[in-house]
Amino acid sequence: MNQKFTIKLKIELSFQPQPLICSICGQPILGNQKLTLDHYIPLCHGGLDEASNLLPAHAICNSIKNGHMPDEFEKQKKELYQQALDNWHIKRKDKLIVENALKNMR
Ligand SMILES: [Zn+2]
User: What distance in angstroms lies between residue 68's CA and the mean position of ligand 1's atoms?
Assistant: First the structure.
């Protein structure tokens, strides 16, 4: 994991004027929400630690997607978000992200 590179990319993203869109749930990432970089193809599936494979995502969405491949995640998205909502201890502001993501999937 190239930590320095990831930090640099995070800083660049955080200075972009438009609200960034979470690549996982499609909602904007607001200033008070934690920004992470999602490995589109997960590292555990051979994804690379480089800009072309890194997309902005809410920390909570990134945790929900975890090591899923994009296509398999897409199929199970609703279940995974629902499971997180039902079973995880989620902070209130993250809960809103999860609830809205679920609403958008209906
Ligand atoms: Zn999200």
Answer: 15
Q: What is the mean pLDDT of the chain?
A: 90
Cα(102) to centroid(ligand 1), Å: 11
Whether 44 contacts 82, CB under 8 Å: no
The pLDDT tens digits for 2-34 are 677 777 777 777 666 678 899 999 999 998 888
DSSP label at residue 34: -
All domains of the chain in start order, with CATH: 3-105 (1.10.30)
On the question of pLDDT at 1 being above 60, the answer is no
Q: 73: CA distance to ligand 1 center in Å?
A: 13
Cα angle value 82/86/89 (rounded, 5°): 120
